Amino acid sequence: MLSGHRHAVSVIHRPVCRRYNFQFHNSPLRRKAIRHFHGLTCRNSPQRIGGLKSTAKRPFTRYHFVIPCLALAPPLVANSSFSTNATQNAEHEPLPPTFKEICSLAPVFAADAENVEIINEPKQFFNAIENGIESAKTHIVLASLYLGAEEGRLIDALRKSLSDPARPDLRVTVLIDYFRGTRGPGNTSVSLLYPLLRDFPDRVEVSLYHTPNFGGIAEKLCPPRFNEGFGLQHIKVYMFDDDVILSGANLNTDYFVNRQDRYILFRQNAIMRDYYRELVQTISSFSFTLSSNTTPNSNSTFQPILTAPPKLVDNRDEFRSDASTTMHSFCRRWYQQTDSLRSRVSQSLQSGEGLKGAKLNTVIMPVIQMGQLGVQQDSKMMTKLLGLMGQEGSAQQGNMEGNAVGWTVHLSSGYLNFPALFGDLIINSRAVYNILTSAPEANGFYGSKGFSKYLPAAYTYLEKLFLTQARTAGRGEDEVIVHEYHRPGWTFHAKGANA
């Protein structure tokens, strides 16, 4: 997402030690985004190997995590915390023309920053979901990995809205993952959603995406949880009429209470609504469908019927080919539909001027990653961005903070395990990298049962390995920095990149 101007960053830092003292500038979303997450601390990961504290003392830093955003147009209004001269100067610092290349990789949408809201905390995220369900008049679309077993309150809210005689045209569409949505024992996403579909069969649609890379006898023999390693439906987008929430958070209790993620609400954005609604419909077209009928099982009870998409069971190779063709057709169609705005954005990058005309100060470029179907927009975008910010010319084109290396890049992930290509781009870059990940105690697998309980220590080992590789390549301690999120009783799930 591009907004404001090129100095917008995604991690707001209140320095308590001189080493991490960053400078920040003004932008429309930046002014919206600065919020306090009380009690969040980040610890330098070299001092935490396998979840064990080192006796070495390192300074603590306090972070405030917001949605990643890059930059295009000048700020709309000067913020009182910045001098007039500084703000005026920032207006003449457009994104480097080299960033024109990223416009060729995805659809391009526009928004007014006044209609973009940064959501800070899990409770606020739940309130936004609940308010959207209560206010939607025609469409509710929920795409998530799964619906948590304890989230009967969301089902109740959906039922109340569907039962409202003032909203007879309201439709609900749900897309979740097949493996995660059917995992038991006890309540599953399917068992929670079925009564809603049964009672409103013409107004509720539930689809479950099943990876084409796994099936047959292997699927029957593979234990639950392990089968999810073969591929998942991982989109998290929540729509209520023309309002769109993009997030990394699932519809589960911990994401509403104490699991920190990132969330951004686009209000009254019809083209984004159409794009994501069609994306969900397209994926649903080759997914399992939950039927409003039931079938008896061995326990003399009844269970919902899941109808498999054509060819998935009998000919997975042909299914994969057909699904890939469908997804590539969707991507081409939306790329062509946004050609006009893409040209305007490219011209503004080339000329060094902001978008002219309407209040289009925020540009959104949504990307999709479905590697099993040959769709790799996200990896291509990240590769291009990391490459552009690390190339030789970046010192002159992107000098954000007056240092010799040029760009400062902020990356965040709850699980730090870079693909080899990304790791090489970071290590061999001329940019400074500040990386935020979860401390072992803030990892979602911390204290879990079975093999997964070892994952937090494994991720910490990968952190150490990555930093060792960076130091061996000559990257100093102030050039590639890893911090760990730690907040007692909380976990960390936020993913993003920003420069």
TrEMBL record:
One biological process term in Gene Ontology: cardiolipin biosynthetic process
Domain PLD phosphodiesterase: 229-255
Pathway field: Phospholipid metabolism; phosphatidylglycerol biosynthesis; phosphatidylglycerol from CDP-diacylglycerol: step 1/2
Alphabetized UniProt keyword annotations: ATP-binding, Lipid biosynthesis, Lipid metabolism, Mitochondrion, Nucleotide-binding, Phospholipid biosynthesis, Phospholipid metabolism, Repeat, Transferase
GO molecular function terms noted in the UniProt entry: ATP binding; CDP-diacylglycerol-glycerol-3-phosphate 3-phosphatidyltransferase activity
Localization terms from the record: Mitochondrion
Enzyme class, broadest EC rank: transferase
Domain of life: Eukaryota
Family membership: Belongs to the CDP-alcohol phosphatidyltransferase class-II family.
Protein name: CDP-diacylglycerol--glycerol-3-phosphate 3-phosphatidyltransferase
UniProt organism field: Rhizophlyctis rosea
Recorded name of the encoding gene: PGS1
